[in-house]
Write a structure and sequence with these properties.
Helices cover 34% and strands 22% of the residues. The protein is elongated and about 80 Å long. 15% of the residues are buried.
């Protein structure tokens, strides 16, 4: 953690993502990043993520996943080169790319990976509107029949015990929203609006994670359903 005289705290993390990582790794990474960002810290993550991001490779899910967390990837050239392959698997992610003045891939190395590094501006200013937090209701587990059934169970007669119309509206809203929150909870997601694909809704991100979990656990029918949902 770096503390500046002015500006946000900067968290710099060196990470390694094993090539056989399961979906749970991404869930923990997402939770970690969201917690740090909610604390108002700037993030710089670098390391071997074992995701090839060279143009033409099929890693759109990973790229969209990181973009949805408000992180930009700065490296654009291969970081591991052999006699038969060339891959970009060593990344640098930042939550404020305007603060990074330059990045480089150093091709002088003792390992089979090139070193990546970047320069961050000193006392860089951070615009207030660089990111935004979106709020939405998640219908991932919504069950219409269960929702209607719970509405029928509400003791609506309580509303009639109040004389003031404002109190009546308040208690009605409270009773109704209690059921809505149970079946379609409010969630918050931090995004960079200008980099967020129009089709990449929070519901699709949830479906992608659930689809991957079903695939790993061998739930074929659920996996196919969620796969089709993501493709819509």
């Amino acid at each position: 953690m770096i503390m500046q005289e002015k500006g946000k705290l900067v968290l710099i993390g060196n990470m390694y993502r094993p090539p056989d990582s399961r979906v749970e790794y991404d869930d923990r990474l997402e939770e970690f990043i969201e917690n740090v960002l909610q604390e108002g810290k700037e993030i710089i993550l670098l390391g071997d993520f074992n995701k090839n991001l060279l143009p033409g490779t099929a890693n759109n899910e990973w790229e969209n996943f990181m973009l949805s967390l408000g992180l930009s990837q700065m490296i654009s050239e291969p970081t591991r080169v052999t006699n038969s392959s060339s891959t970009l698997i060593d990344h640098i992610y930042t939550s404020y790319e305007e603060n990074i003045s330059s990045v480089r891939v150093c091709k002088v190395t003792l390992s089979d990976h090139y070193a990546v590094f970047g320069n961050r501006k000193i006392n860089a200013s951070i615009g207030k509107n660089s990111h935004q937090m979106i709020t939405y209701r998640s219908f991932k587990n919504f069950d219409e029949n269960a929702f209607v059934n719970d509405l029928h169970q509400i003791p609506w007669e309580i509303v009639d015990t109040f004389d003031d119309v404002n109190d009546m509206v308040q208690i009605w809203n409270s009773l109704f929203l209690e059921v809505v929150d149970k079946h379609a909870p409010v969630k918050h997601h931090r995004v960079k609006k200008y980099r967020q694909p129009d089709w990449l809704s929070p519901e699709i991100l949830d479906a992608i994670k659930d689809r991957n979990k079903c695939k790993v656990n061998g739930h074929v029918a659920d996996y196919r359903y969620l796969r089709n949902k993501v493709l819509l």
